[in-house]
Design goal:
single chain, about 180 residues, mainly alpha, 2 domains, 9 helices, 2 strands
C-alpha cells in the first residue's frame, strides 16, 4: 500500500505498545462507550484535516503515517547473490556510479552543478554545521522522516542521505543569500 506508521518525533519504529495498544486498541475501547463512542470517532476522523494530518489515535500514540517511495520489488536470486558475494566494501551500483563521477568533483559541487563551485572551507563549514545539528538533536525532523522513508528504515543510510540533503540545502541557501 506504500504507507508506514512511524514515531512522530524521530521516524523510528513505534513498537507494539504505541502501534497497537495506544493507536488501535484504546480508541476501539473508547468507541464502545455509550454516548461517547460515536462522537469520538467523528472527531477522530475530522482530525485528519489538521495541517499535520494526525488523528487522535496518532496523537495518543505519538505516531504519524507516512507515504513510502515506490517500494522495490523483492530481490530475485541473482540480485541476492550479487549482493552477498560482491567483493568490494561498497555496493555494485555505488561502485559503478563512482566510476562516472569526476575525481575532482566534491559532493557539494555535484549537488548544484549550475551554481558556482564552493571552496573547501565553505563545504567543511557546512559539514561541521550539520554535525552540530545531529550531535545536539536539532535536525530537521521533516527532512529526517522523509529520508527515513526513502531509505526504508535503515538508520545509517538515513543519516547519510540526511547529510547529503542538508548540504544541498545549505549550498543553495548560501547562493541565494549572495544574490
Amino acid at each position: 500500500m506504500g504507507i508506514r506508521i512511524v514515531r512522530f518525533e524521530n521516524g523510528g519504529n513505534p513498537g507494539f505498545v504505541k502501534a497497537f495498544l495506544l493507536r488501535s486498541l484504546l480508541p476501539s475501547l473508547i468507541a464502545t462507550l455509550p454516548y461517547l463512542g460515536q462522537p469520538f470517532w467523528l472527531i477522530n476522523t475530522l482530525f485528519i484535516c489538521r495541517t499535520d494530518r494526525r488523528c487522535i489515535h496518532d496523537i495518543l500514540a505519538n505516531t504519524v503515517v507516512i507515504k513510502l517511495k515506490d517500494e522495490a520489488p523483492p530481490m530475485d536470486f541473482w540480485a541476492r547473490m550479487k549482493k552477498t558475494i560482491w567483493p568490494l566494501p561498497i555496493g555494485p551500483d555505488d561502485f559503478l556510479a563512482s566510476l562516472e563521477t569526476p575525481a575532482f568533483a566534491t559532493p557539494a559541487a555535484q549537488a548544484l552543478p549550475e551554481a558556482r563551485a564552493i571552496n573547501q572551507a565553505e563545504e567543511d563549514s557546512f559539514y561541521a554545521e550539520i554535525a552540530l545539528e545531529l550531535a545536539h538533536g536539532n535536525r530537521d525532523e521533516g527532512l529526517w522522516t522523509k529520508c527515513y522513508a526513502e531509505e526504508n528504515g535503515d538508520e545509517n543510510k538515513t543519516k547519510a542521505r540526511y547529510i547529503r540533503e542538508r548540504i544541498k540545502f545549505l549550498i543553495a541557501q548560501s547562493h541565494v543569500s549572495e544574490n
